[in-house]
Design a protein that fits this description.
It is a single chain. With 423 residues, this protein is of the alpha/beta class. It has 2 domains: 154 residues, no CATH class; 247 residues, pyruvate-formate lyase- activating enzyme (Alpha-Beta Horseshoe), CATH 3.80.30.20. The structure holds iron/sulfur cluster. Iron/sulfur cluster (SF4) binds next to loops.
């Protein structure tokens, strides 16, 4: 039985067990092991370090009982929206859409951070901290006293400092997580094994501008050890790793295999509260074409299910030129065919692809995606998800969503909108 303590209007549960597997479900589910404090309106969830993790409301003073706020290790708050009447699942593959407080190219989702009820939820969290500070912890059972002490140590300044430390360890903000990280609600530990990318395309807003460079094994191990210390007691709530940066696939089989296994050991993923470990990485057209069967065989043997996301962007010459992406249509077609072949052959790997999406692109762009995702396939496939990534000038939201719905009907692969999220 979960032990709880009642103090005035607060119910305090020092150690609560949530679900142990990420599930796509149409009501809010909390994962892992955490501390919970709730009052009449809000439920506050704290991770094992005492850091605020989610705020969830109900009734008066909240927007929708099915929606919640979640804080990332990078100290961003994300509002998980049920998507109103427009059906989040069809557009994003998830029942909840992460709405972010910083500019993204997401065509889907609303700026909830301007809503007074979200502001009220943050104010309620600060009032909670003031109230907890007045409680005499000496009179509480051990676990509850320790939870309150941990929470009170995690002041706003400390959370901001920890985010700085987190970014310093990995070498900067993760400007974009792979879209497939949605499968674990973006709960990934990021490790950078290489910096920069091969193309430095003109259109890209997330590139570093640096040329591609692999990190040494010592640097990578040091990064993992420091991340383990950073996550501390909460590391048991993670079972998934993002191997960055923009083209980890180009680092080759040996380094990917080694880094993934090191992460599995160092982060003690076998002992995680969460089942089904997952590994996420980005790749490029050239790294996919260069990768041989030995690489995919090695990845398929890892103790993870692996998702590799490739930026194909278009199947059209005029669009490539507009995007200033130094690739040919032939290479993109070959990469698409290889993606499908790998997905057929390796049961623990899914290669997914991104395409840009916007109103100012040449008329030949949209048919070129369908040429790959419909004409090149003779039947519908369940693996090989396509993510459409809206550019800044996506135009009217309604028109974009209608066009996306029409695309989805014709496409022979699962297709969703890419929700750009940083860490
Ligand atoms: S789209 Fe990919 S390859 Fe091109 S600049 Fe951005 S990160 Fe680099």
């Amino acid at each position: 039985m979960t032990h709880q303590i009642i103090i005035d209007d607060l119910i305090i549960i020092p150690e609560k067990k949530g679900a142990d597997a990420y599930t796509k479900i149409s009501y809010p589910l909390r994962y892992g092991v955490y501390g919970e404090i709730r009052n009449r309106i809000y439920t506050f969830q704290f991770n094992s370090n005492g850091e605020i993790k989610t705020i969830h409301g109900k009734g008066e003073g909240w927007l929708d009982a099915a929606e919640w706020l979640k804080r990332t290790p990078g100290n961003d708050w994300v509002y998980f929206s049920a998507g109103g009447y427009t059906g989040a699942y069809d557009f994003t593959g998830e029942y909840y859409v992460p709405c972010l407080p910083y500019p993204t190219n997401a065509v889907y989702g609303i700026d909830q951070f301007k809503e007074s009820n979200v502001k009220k939820a943050f104010a309620a969290y600060h009032r909670l901290r003031e109230k907890l500070a007045r409680i005499n912890t000496a009179a509480l059972p051990e676990k509850a006293a320790r939870l309150l002490e941990r929470i009170l140590q995690m002041t706003s300044e400390r959370l901001a400092d920890r985010a700085k430390k987190f970014h310093e360890i990995i070498g900067g903000v993760v400007t974009v997580l792979p879209p497939d990280a949605r499968h674990v609600e973006y709960d990934v530990i990021p490790i950078n094994i290489a910096d920069g990318c091969l193309y430095n395309c003109g259109f890209c807003r997330v590139k570093t501008g640096r040329s591609y460079r692999v990190r040494t094994r010592d640097q990578i191990t040091d990064q993992m050890q420091r991340l383990k210390t950073f996550y501390g007691a909460d590391i048991g709530n993670y079972n998934s790793v993002f191997i960055g940066q923009h083209d980890a696939l180009f680092a080759g089989a040996d380094l990917i295999d080694w880094a993934a296994r090191q992460a599995f050991e160092i982060f003690e993923i076998a002992a995680s509260h969460m089942k089904t470990p997952r590994l996420f990485l980005f790749g490029s057209v050239d790294s996919l074409l260069k990768a041989d069967d030995a690489l995919f065989t090695a990845i398929n043997r890892l103790p993870f299910e692996t998702y590799i996301n490739i930026g194909l962007e278009t199947g059209d010459k005029a669009t490539l030129s507009m995007l200033q992406k130094p690739l040919t249509v032939e290479k993109i077609q070959a990469a698409f065919d290889k993606m499908m072949a790998v997905n057929r052959k390796f049961d623990k790997i899914e290669i997914t692809a991104n395409f840009v999406w916007g109103q100012g692109l040449p008329d030949t762009h949209f048919p070129s995606i369908l040429d790959l995702a419909r004409n090149r396939l003779d039947h519908v496939h369940g693996k090989g998800t396509l993510y459409l990534s809206p550019l800044e000038d996506f135009g009217s939201k309604q028109e974009m969503l209608a066009r996306f719905a029409a695309f989805k009907m014709q496409c022979r692969l699962p297709a969703y909108i890419y929700l750009i999220q940083r860490l």
